[in-house]
User: What shape does this take?
Amino acid sequence: MTIRLKTAATVIALLFAAGGAPAADKPTDQQIAHIAYTAGVIDIEAAKQAIATSKNPTIVEFAESMVRDHEAVNKQALDLVKKLNVTPEDNDTSKTLSKEAEAKRQELGKLTGAEFDKAYIDHEIAYHKQVNSAVETQLIPAAQNAELKSLLETGLKLFQGHQQHAERVAAELK
Amino acid sequence: MRSMVFFASLLGAAAIAVAAQAETIQVMVDRLVYTPAEVDAKVGDEIQWINKDGLVHTATVKGGWEVNLPAKKSGRLLLQEPGSFDYICRYHPNMKGRITVRP
Assistant: This one.
């Protein structure tokens, strides 16, 4: 799990850092919108898996919060791209995120009970950490449109709260 | 005489109405922040939270009242008892506010 996460993080870092490459290598707003939306969908799907699998009310409540908030943010993102008349553009970061998420889903699918709960919440902590870091250090600075930047900033604040929430839940499980 | 009593009681009613003149105090909820975070009010006042976020929020006193604030909607609470109330959003507990209610 850790290795896969690191791979995803490395790909994100590589894509954005693009050692010595010109500024043109920064993600465009169309790509940023796609990455942010994809990251949200991934967390919603993981949450749905948790709701269906877990019997722990704290885990289920956490997962329901993830569905509620990420669906709300993605709705705002869709409204925004529609308003701005931009088309989110698929890209390597989105593809890598989706691929890693699918692997994670299969891994979690083999677990049940307390094992599942722990693996799910630990992954939620790690996933939010990675995505938050990318949003803060890569996506927000690269975003050109003020409204997109603003949505990312609100999202970051929200997702940092999710990370803290996940950490509290993980501490409770112990 | 009777009319005097009637007049006096009318005055009395008017005085009560003035004393109880209740206010509606607005609290904005924007980007996961209550503004103003601290509100001074009196019994009989009403708080109106205006949720500008596209997220569901609440104003929740642990073990006390709770007001639901759907995305882009507002919610109200009539202040019926004096005291100091710390509240949070049930879903985003980093959001914090306080209402001080005078008698």
About this structure: Chain B is about 15% helix and 45% strand. The domain at 22-102 of chain B is CATH 2.60.40.420 (Immunoglobulin-like). The longest helix of chain B spans residues 2-19.
